[in-house]
Amino acid sequence: MRPEPEATTKLRLVGELAVLRSKTMEDAEADYSWRVDSELAALDATRPVTLTFTEYMRYHRDDVNYPSPWSVRMAIDTLDGHHIGNCMYYDINAEKSQCELGIMIGDRAYWSKGYGTDVIKVALAHIFTATNLERVYLHTLTSNFRAQKSFAKAGFIAVHKVKRDGYEFVFMEIWRKQWTANSAKLARSTSADVSAATAPTPSVSRAETDPLLGS
Ligand SMILES: CC(C)(COP(=O)(O)OP(=O)(O)OC[C@H]1O[C@@H](n2cnc3c(N)ncnc32)[C@H](O)[C@@H]1OP(=O)(O)O)[C@@H](O)C(=O)NCCC(=O)NCCS
């Protein structure tokens, strides 16, 4: 059963800082350099790849040419087209109406600059508008504070801790109704900002309203 017909079509999702797009053969070299990186592997509770680049290319070619209907793999580019990482949603389960989300910014120069949060928001907006899935969840190491903060800023809620294969993870999730409420709140605050910015300047000066300033 194919859970989502859009899963195999070409994607291009534009955020404020980054673009999510379908994977291409040209991504192989950067992807390989990130997959053999032991620090990146450790942050994702996995082991670095030990394949040669030629062996890796076979897997990469299959992933690009024959994408699984159960997962959607996307590259993360900066707005000017520099490939900095990857994001995927996978274990798409139509019966449970859920999928898991994963992200890896491989280029360290782009850590802690808001790219991860932007990408996660864009991915969630896509999942909750282009599919019928009700819940997106993830596991991140309890020691990975940067990832937890980024996921929380994008709307994920920490639910509980999970021990698996000797690692301890925080299980986080967001439901469609939470995402919808967050989006509505954001839209309201944005329109309030616009009204404040376009409102006429009050005639009362700060000195008249702030007793500490006096006259
Ligand atoms: C995890 C990841 C996607 C986050 O993306 P990012 O662009 O680096 O994160 P953001 O800038 O959007 O948000 C990170 C937040 O954590 C904060 N942060 C960074 N290091 C931190 C730390 N050690 N403790 C607490 N907060 C930290 C940042 O200051 C930022 O918060 P702020 O915007 O309020 O200042 C990215 O760093 C990454 O891919 N890292 C390598 C692989 C990885 O860890 N993948 C996740 C596997 S689940």
Q: How is this structure best described in words?
A:
Helix content is 37%, strand content 27%. The protein has a domain at 9-136: 3-Layer(aba) Sandwich (Aminopeptidase), CATH 3.40.630. An eight-stranded mixed β-sheet has the order 1-2-3-4-5-6-8-7, sandwiched between helices. It is globular and about 55 Å long. It is built from seven helices and eight strands, in the order E-E-H-H-H-E-E-E-H-E-H-E-E-H-H. The structure holds coenzyme A. Coenzyme A is lined by residues 40, 43-44, 85, 103-105, 111-117, 140, 144-147, 149-150.
Summarize the entry for a quick read.
The chain has 215 residues and is α+β, with helices and mostly antiparallel strands. The protein contains seven helices and eight strands; from the N terminus they run ββαααβββαβαββαα. Helices cover 37% and strands 27% of the residues.
Set out the fold topology:
Elements lengths: L11 E3 L3 E5 L5 H8 L2 H6 L9 H13 L6 E7 L4 E11 L4 E8 L9 H16 L4 E7 L3 H9 L3 E8 L2 E9 H23 L7 H4 L6
Parallel strand pairs: 5-6
Antiparallel strand pairs: 1-2, 2-3, 3-4, 4-5, 6-8, 7-8
Coenzyme A binds next to α2, β5, α4 and α5.
Order of helices and strands: EEHHHEEEHEHEEHH
Bound molecules: coenzyme A
> How many strand segments?
8
Under the CATH scheme, the architecture of the domain at 9-136 is 3-Layer(aba) Sandwich
Distance between the termini: 74 Å
The main β sheet shows up as: 8 strands, mixed
Number of helices: 7
Proportion of strand residues: 25-35%
> In the CATH hierarchy, what is the class of the domain at 9-136?
Alpha Beta
Q: Poorly predicted ranges (pLDDT <50, ≥5 residues)?
A: 1-8, 201-215
Assembly state (oligomeric): single chain
Percent range of helical residues? 25-40%
Could you say which structural class the secondary elements and strand pairing correspond to? alpha+beta
Gyration radius over CA: 21 Å
- CATH topology annotation of the domain at 9-136: Aminopeptidase
Shape: globular
Mean pLDDT: 89
CATH superfamily of the domain at 9-136: Gcn5-related N-acetyltransferase (GNAT)
Strand order of the largest sheet: 1-2-3-4-5-6-8-7
